[in-house]
Specification:
Length: about 90
């Protein structure tokens, strides 16, 4: 594995977060914190790509082939609003 040095600028909040992670013993160095963050970002991007390829694109193709398979946006949003309202009512 080759190592490349980079210089980055961080917000005060991000720098403090990194310092806390190192001070807590969760990570041995700033580089380890940054690498863990990059691995998490790569994992998220891979998961999104997988979802797009395996679920979103095939569903889009099915709806394009037969528009009757889809639901109008008004119907979907009404169902979401009703579900949200029911949840909010249950939390009161």
């Amino acid at each position: 594995m080759s190592i490349e040095k980079r210089t980055v600028s961080l917000t005060t909040e991000h720098a403090a977060f990194i310092d806390r992670m190192v001070a807590s013993g969760s990570f041995a160095s700033t580089s380890e914190v940054v690498c863990a963050g990059l691995r998490a970002l790569q994992g998220r991007d891979e998961a999104v790509e997988c979802w797009l390829r395996e679920e979103a694109a095939p569903t889009y193709d099915l709806v394009q082939a037969d528009a009757d398979r889809g639901l109008p946006a008004k119907t979907v949003f009404a169902a979401i609003r009703a579900k949200h309202a029911a949840r909010m009512k249950g939390n009161s």
